[in-house]
């Protein structure tokens, strides 16, 4: 890793490293001499770095436009300042939490792209891993699960997703639900074996589900670890506090009354008391913007999650076809952003443009440029930022090059694991370049007290 924060001002770099030293010393309690050696080594690496733009090395390809890999702001960007100040607090003081929410389609459900961003955010500075945040037992719904956890279950479950227009079901932030009518069922989440992914312990959870008189009773399989339970019926969740940190969760759903008919789960939030960055990723294969507009509990669950930053990677499925309407796309996105801001006013939002793609594997999809222009328009209107993936990856027909180099799949829509990792690194570096600008405007890097 080559660190290049505040590349234009060596003085700022020294201040940044000094603050980092104070933070790590406080949390790990290692001798001054040791940390002086480490800081000297970091400065040496910084000075010898070949890359002048990126804190993380990325494999260089001629077709990727690295110079344009940045967040684009078209109007007032002041709502991002509170997010950057929270980053200051987490990095320099080792205090506070940051909740990031990333919503999308199949690019996000598999959690390779978003998982790479999560890993970069949670490991680029010591002690900021935070918690895992929002998860859903996708395996219960018989669809793909992120690689850093696994799910076992018992009972018969019926799934409903926001892409299924023929189903009439209530959905929330996750865009998916699972319902059982069996009198006894279980769902178990635990660390996937032999997979080198970050996993997280937790000492409290929030379970989002249909809380009503006809709902089955929800229990923790090991009640001895539960110290406190709070049910918030109006907000639609129950929070459980545990007497220790655990890395395995088993929920038990039991019918205890003849009036009870079902249990419907919308998602689980895994939390702990550690400071740091929580990167929540929510994706549904095939989802478009209207898919999430069909989620009537979206605002309610957003208030529970309470994100400090929202990233929207929706649009690839909206623009898959010859009858794509930019005007309808803008109207739908307007509605989605308004709903998000209704739940969390002034929350900073990043829109990611579509990747270049093909229609039906044979025809160049020229809608990518139309989506790009539409998102520029939306960013201006809603004081949002844009990460222009379409341009950064090479523009029209660049997906062919990615596919030839085994960075994209044969469908010329999705990416391979290596390709998604590159996208994750590109996005993270674009985020840090924007953060660099914030730091350059705060030369003293004053440590802010938590209010």
Question: What does it look like?
Answer:
The protein is an alpha+beta fold and 451 residues long. It folds into three domains: 1-52; 58-130 and 275-451, 3-Layer(aba) Sandwich (Rossmann fold), CATH 3.40.50.1110; 131-273, Jelly Rolls, CATH 2.60.120.1360. Helix content is 32%, strand content 23%. The chain contains twelve helices and 19 strands. The strands form four sheets. Strands 3, 5, 6, 8, 10, 11 and 13 form a seven-stranded antiparallel sheet that branches. Strand 10 (226-232) and strand 11 (237-246) form a beta hairpin. The longest helix is centred in the C-terminal third of the chain and has 24 residues, at 417-440. The chain is globular and about 60 Å long. It starts with 9 loop residues before the first helix and ends in an 11-residue tail after the last helix. The model is unreliable at 1-33, 35-53 and 446-451 (pLDDT under 50).
Briefly, what is this?
The protein is an alpha+beta fold and 451 residues long. The chain has 12 helices and 19 strands.
Topology:
Layout: H1 10-28, H2 32-48, E1 71-73, H3 81-93, E2 97-104, H4 106-109, H5 113-123, E3 133-135, E4 150-154, E5 157-161, E6 176-180, E7 184-190, E8 202-209, E9 217-220, E10 226-232, E11 237-246, E12 249-254, E13 263-271, E14 276-283, H6 289-293, H7 298-305, E15 309-313, H8 326-343, E16 349-352, E17 358-359, E18 363-364, H9 367-382, E19 385-387, H10 389-392, H11 398-404, H12 417-440
Parallel strand pairs: 2-14, 2-15, 15-16, 16-19
Antiparallel strand pairs: 1-19, 3-13, 4-7, 5-6, 6-13, 7-12, 8-11, 8-13, 9-12, 10-11, 17-18
């Amino acid at each position: 890793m080559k660190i290049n924060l505040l590349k234009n001002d060596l003085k700022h770099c020294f201040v940044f490293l000094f603050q980092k030293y104070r933070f790590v010393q406080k949390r790990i309690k290692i001798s001054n001499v040791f940390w002086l050696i480490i800081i000297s080594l970091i400065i040496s690496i910084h000075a010898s770095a070949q890359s002048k733009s990126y804190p993380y090395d990325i494999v260089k390809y001629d077709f990727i436009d690295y110079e344009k890999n940045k967040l684009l702001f078209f109007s007032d960007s002041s709502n991002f300042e509170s997010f950057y100040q929270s980053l200051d607090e987490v990095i320099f003081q080792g205090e506070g939490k940051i909740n990031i929410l990333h919503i999308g389609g199949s690019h996000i459900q598999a959690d390779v792209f978003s998982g790479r961003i999560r890993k970069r955010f949670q490991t680029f500075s010591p002690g900021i891993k935070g918690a895992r945040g929002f998860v859903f037992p996708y395996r219960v719904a018989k669809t793909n699960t992120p690689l850093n956890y696994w799910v076992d279950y018992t009972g018969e479950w019926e799934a409903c997703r926001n892409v299924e227009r023929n189903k009439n079901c209530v959905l929330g932030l996750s865009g998916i639900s699972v319902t059982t009518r069996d009198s006894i069922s279980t769902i178990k989440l635990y660390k996937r074996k032999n997979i080198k992914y970050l996993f997280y312990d937790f000492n409290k959870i929030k379970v989002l589900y249909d809380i009503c008189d006809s709902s089955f009773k929800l229990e923790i399989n090991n009640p001895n670890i539960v110290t406190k339970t709070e049910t918030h019926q109006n907000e639609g969740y129950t929070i459980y506090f545990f007497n220790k940190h655990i890395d395995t969760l088993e929920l038990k759903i039991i019918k205890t009354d003849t009036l009870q008919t079902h249990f419907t789960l919308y998602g689980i939030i895994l939390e702990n008391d550690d400071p740091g960055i929580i990167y929540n990723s929510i994706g549904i294969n095939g989802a478009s913007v209207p898919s999430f507009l069909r989620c009537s509990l979206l605002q309610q669950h957003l208030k529970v999650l309470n994100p400090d930053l929202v990233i929207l990677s929706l649009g690839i499925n909206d623009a898959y076809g010859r009858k794509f309407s930019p005007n309808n796309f803008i109207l739908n996105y307007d509605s989605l952003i308004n709903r998000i801001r209704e739940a969390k006013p002034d929350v900073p939002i990043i829109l990611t443009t579509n990747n270049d793609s093909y229609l039906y594997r044979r025809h160049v999809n020229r809608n990518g440029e139309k989506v790009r222009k539409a998102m520029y328009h939306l960013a201006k209107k809603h004081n949002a930022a844009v990460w222009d993936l379409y341009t950064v990856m090479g523009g029209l027909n660049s997906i062919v090059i990615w596919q030839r180099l085994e960075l994209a799949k044969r469908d010329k829509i999705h990416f391979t694991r290596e390709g998604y990792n590159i996208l994750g690194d590109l996005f993270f570096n674009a985020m840090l370049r924007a953060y660099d600008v914030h730091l350059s405007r705060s030369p003293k890097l004053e440590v802010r007290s938590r209010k």
